[in-house]
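Sequence only, no structure available. Ideas?
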Amino acid sequence: MFDFKFEGNLAADAEFHFTPTGKAVTTLRVAHNTRRRNAKGEWSDGPTMWVRVTAWEKLAENTSELRKGDTVIIDARDVTARAYLNEGKAEAQLEATANTVALSMRYAGATSTRGAKTTADDEDRWSTENLREPEHV
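Reply:
I predicted one. Tokens follow.
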């Protein structure tokens, strides 16, 4: 298994739904554009890499409000490629499962919203509040 990290723009609003067994799932259609300066110093657009990203459970809920045009940074796994014909032209699309999705703040700011903590799993494991001095023997 390998990790696949990239930055791209959402080509459509996030698609959120529940599976028949009740698991939350969000699908993101992300375009990663390669843009470089040519020998003349002008910007030149390269091919667009399309990635269909699937987020599950809590991550699906957290990404469900992402909108077309949002710039995101994706850390994904389980990457596969799918080839197809689009108007007689061969194209390819990557498909991946998201480990993490973050809003990129390269071009715009972002606001964090957090709900109240509800379980012990949500506790800050790195907190120093409950540390004790070790007992000396």
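DSSP finds one helix and six strands in the chain.
Hope that gets you unstuck.
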